[in-house]
Amino acid sequence: MNQCNEPVLAMYNPKQPIRISTDASRSGLGAVLEQQTDGHWLSVAYHSRAVTDAESCYAVIELETLAIATACERFHQYIYGQRVEINTDHKPLVAIFSKPLNDCPPRIERLRLRLQRYDLHLTYVPEADVQVHVEGIMVTTLVSDRKKTEIKHEMEQDTSMQKLIKVIQAGWPDERQACSYELQAYWNYSDELCIHEGLIYKGKRITIPLKLRKEILSQIHAGHMGHEKCKRMARQVVFWPGMNHEIDTLVNQCEACQKHQHQQSVEPLKPHLVPNRPWQKVATDLFELNNQHYIVIVDAYSNYPEVQELTSQSSKSVINAIKTVFARLGILEEVLGDNGPCYSSAEFASFAKQWDFNHITSSPGFPQSNGLAERTVQTVKNIISKSIESKEDYQMGLLVQRSCQSKTGCEPHWKDKGEVLKRVMPRSYNVKTENGTVLRRNRRDLLKIQEKAKDSTEKEKAQAMDLASRKKHQVNTKILDKKPEIKAI
């Protein structure tokens, strides 16, 4: 009779009495949860697992206690808050569980501490009565008898499976390299593999020989389920090393799945144009750190950041901060900000009209369109946070940031003003030419560096667009002709 179907496997009823029968051996633990219905005890759930190397060294009474603890934790959703009868074939456990905790051996004491949240009542049952239920768990799987016979036949013909059986019976070597090449893939599962009736089990899952794996995979993917559902189905029944990777490959190469797969389209990037000069266009953003409000104004040409403290995040405070930049550097052509209240207010719109600059807002729900300001905020917040923690002036950190070379190959301040900031680290103001002549930096050098920086910026944006467009297909491309690239695990 199949122990996973009615009438053997019953539905759980919280109003009916509960009992758990457990048993343990040097190779595994087993348990069955039962409920009394119409005077008969029917099985509700099963549990079993292999013991680890450390657990196999336990005393018999410790293994039996471990079986009870493992079963109760496994059936927690059924027994928590209920009176539970525990059937065990190890009579000394009944006396041990009636003793005070401090009178128990240390390992049993720890296991009993794990069981204190349950209302357990131990009963001694002869070994034969427990074996009828518990030992049947290890041999019950979702594979039919006919398929088991076929797997066993192929396993006898498979030389690698025969080697694996011998290693399991004789014992695994101490090091992975000592195993033959075809058995090294099983090394990580050596503690979980066992042999029963000529079949190799990993827990309750049957290890499949190489010749049958393709057939098993096709059966798993018969309903054209996705990656995770196919894996969950396979993990209930079968096992072999690399099974998850092979399932991923099968699903990715299934033409029907690829044809009807839902695709999330990637919108093409539309990068901002690179300005021709400093402070032609700026990006702004607000942030708060340690109850203090800040505004970041970063030049889109040189990446030079201006950081100012604000009294609040109101439009008036933001306008006053931007006005100080205008007063020092002149009125800008474009100011990019997000759609926050301070930028979308009528007061800010009036300010833009009065000072004659173009106010641009980032796309709603897409802050990446103001990525320059977002990234600068992240950098500035790190500088301020670290300076506060180390009790230093964060303005010194901003000075160092402005004088560090960026991806464009030059400093933000040099690219902005053609000057080298005086800083703590010594810096030479001289430039050595190819013929060895030493000259001071001049206007011609500035123009060359600015041209080089602009080329670097455009190249960087082109690379970003290339990465973003790799997921897009050309017009008239046959999607099914493009096999997905599967990376090896």
UniProtKB/TrEMBL annotation:
GO molecular function per UniProt: endonuclease activity; hydrolase activity; nucleic acid binding; RNA-directed DNA polymerase activity
Keyword hit for Transferase: yes
Keyword terms: Endonuclease, Hydrolase, Nuclease, Nucleotidyltransferase, RNA-directed DNA polymerase, Transferase
GO biological process, one term: DNA integration
InterPro entries attached to this UniProt entry: DNA/RNA_pol_sf, Integrase_cat-core, Integrase_H2C2, Retrovirus_Pol_polyprotein, RNaseH-like_sf, RNaseH_sf, RT_RNaseH
Name of the protein this chain belongs to: Retrotransposon-like family member retr-1
Organism taxonomic ancestry: Eukaryota, Metazoa, Cnidaria, Anthozoa, Octocorallia
